[in-house]
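=== RUN LOG ===
request id: a7f3
mode: sequence -> structure
chains: 1
length: 184
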Amino acid sequence: MKKLLFLGALLLVLASCVETKKGDAEKDGPAETGITEIDVGTVGDGTSMHSLEFIGLFGDTLYFVYENNAVGGLACGDLISVEYTKDDEELNALYIVNLTALCNQWQESDEAGNYSFKLEDDGSATITGFDANYDRWCILHGQLNITDEHSGNDKKFDIVLLTEDSLVLKAAQDGTELRMGKLS
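=== RESULT ===
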């Protein structure tokens, strides 16, 4: 029950970051061509080189075509966020981010060592080293977005590298690169 509650909370957090491209296709519903959607679920055991078996939080199974756009790897059972479109009856994954790998405590690994991120599964965060007190995070367009709920300040990062023990982020605004290691 606790796991189901956690997954529900994570879905709500990620849903709050969703931006949908709207156009004429919207008249026919959200599954039409050209609309971008985001979903959270787990990697299924039918995943292969360019095909992702995705099991949604409510047990629905979807199959996505993807190129080399999975950040953090794809292991069966890992929690992931997928941003996708539908083209000619095919679901195309635009961005895949491994949330199991991302939801950890990270610290800058060089001499400065003045940035740290603790990303929780429910979208809350404890982030130090910036001028603002960022306390929320989400994934949108393959980027890590951190937000200060009180001031509305936000910062966007491209995820350059995500592994079991390393996270490299590049600030979208100024290109600053943060090389972080996972804390135990």
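=== NOTES ===
Residues 134 and 152 are 9 Å apart (CA to CA).
Helices lie at 2-15, 99-102.
=== END ===
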